[in-house]
Write a structure and sequence with these properties.
The complex is a heterodimer of chains A (about 110) and B (about 270).
Chain A: H1 11-34, H2 39-61, H3 69-97
Helix pairs in contact in A: 1-2
Chain B: H1 2-12, H2 28-57, H3 66-94, H4 98-128, H5 146-153, H6 156-184, H7 188-202, H8 209-212, H9 214-229, H10 236-261
Helix pairs in contact in B: 2-6, 2-10, 3-4, 3-10, 4-6, 6-9, 6-10, 7-9
Classes of the chains: A mainly alpha (about 110), B mainly alpha (about 270).
């Protein structure tokens, strides 16, 4: 039975990941404070930063990076597929209810 | 019986035996928790999609001023730091250091509790300024003002905001109780009971948490049943599995914070 402790584990990498997560959060807050981008671009940038942060949490803190590739791929692909399906069901409908004036509608 | 135990032991050491190796190369509790987290991520996904869906076709308010964003940033730092202490707890459990496992779990619970308290204060402030949904108690003086107008004109905002953040706060609360049970087993139950009763009597009746505190009572009941059915000493695997849950709670907040707070800021 493979255990999470069998790979080469050094505590230092977790401190680096924690530091990276704090820095990414600080960048997000600065972007939010300064209103650097217009809303749609801001949403894209924040989502990309969030996905990077979640990848760090899942990969390192939750140890998925060190699990068997079958488990890794099964979890990532199945959850991603569900979100993609949700996206295609929800958002075209959201636009249909009341088409926003600028085509996107974020305030 | 002895043969079965022998064969089971042989499988555990990677030797050929009567049982097949696990499909995912991990023990069943871990696979079970991952499957639960995959399904739970869809629950939060649906709530985040509902929030975004409403936002697309509604004139969306931007009620979060500098103080709210500062508060939410501290909450984020608490959760991220709690994930680090949780990793330390798993390390301590794997090397069999019971005292430090308990200490790191306690630190994780402290960060989680700080998150809940800060979030509760933020909620109380917003409700006190008039942001509300039907069924919430109305504090005196919360019927006029900017947020009261938001509640009247864009009820989708408080509905999705409170729905999403309440679900997350409930998950953090369950996480703190889960870690408490893993760290202290039955000795955690009286602590939980005292917090429940004290919270109920100390929180004013016009505050929503006067009723929300009953989540602790429900947690006490469920924890008592679990400890009655499995009154065992939790091992390193249990600590690791509870850590998976805790990191997931942290992960969800990494999406709620930017989408709900940072996209609705109004810094003057």
């Amino acid at each position: 039975m493979q255990d999470a402790a069998t790979h080469d584990d050094s505590k230092g990498q977790y401190f680096w990941v924690w530091g990276a997560l704090l820095v990414l959060t600080a960048i997000e807050v600065v972007l939010g404070y300064r209103q650097v981008f217009e809303p749609v671009r801001m949403l894209e940038v924040l989502l990309i930063l969030s996905i990077i942060k979640s990848a760090l949490i899942i990969g390192y803190f939750m140890h998925l990076k060190f699990e068997k590739s079958l488990m890794r791929w099964m979890l990532v692909l199945s959850v991603t597929a569900c979100f993609v399906i949700m996206y295609f069901f929800f958002f075209p409908d959201a636009g249909r209810v009341m088409p926003p004036p600028n085509g996107v509608g974020l305030q | 019986m002895a043969n079965a135990a022998l064969e089971h032991g042989a499988v555990q050491h990677g030797l050929p035996g009567a049982y097949e190796a696990p499909l995912f190369g991990a023990y069943s509790k871990k696979v079970g928790m991952w499957l639960f987290l995959a399904s739970d991520s869809l629950t939060f996904g649906a709530l985040l999609f509902a929030f975004s869906y409403n936002r697309i076709y509604t004139p969306w308010p931007t009620p979060f001023h500098a103080q709210s964003i500062a508060n939410a940033t501290i909450m984020t730092a608490c959760l991220l730091s709690s994930s680090l202490t949780m990793v330390m707890a798993v390390f301590a459990a794997q090397r069999g250091d019971r005292a430090w496992t308990r200490n790191w779990l306690l630190a994780t619970m402290a960060f989680g509790t700080a998150f809940i308290v800060l979030h509760g204060m933020e909620w109380s402030k917003l409700i006190g300024e008039g942001l509300t949904i039907p069924g919430f108690p109305h504090p005196a003086g919360a019927t006029a003002g900017e947020l009261a107008d938001v509640s009247k004109n864009v009820p989708q905002f408080p509905a999705t905001f409170f729905g999403l953040t309440a679900m997350h706060m409930l998950h953090v609360t369950i996480g703190v109780i889960y870690l408490g049970v893993v760290a202290f087993r039955k000795w955690f139950l009286p602590v939980l009971g005292v917090l429940w009763i004290a919270g109920y009597f100390l929180i004013p009746s016009d505050n929503v948490f006067h009723y929300g505190i009953h989540a602790l009572g429900l947690g006490l009941l469920v924890s008592a049943v679990i400890l009655f059915l499995k009154p065992k000493d939790y091992d390193a695997h249990d600590v690791e599995v509870s850590g998976l849950y805790w990191h997931f709670v942290d992960l969800v907040w990494m999406f709620i914070f930017p989408l709900v707070y940072l996209m609705s800021t109004r810094i003057n």
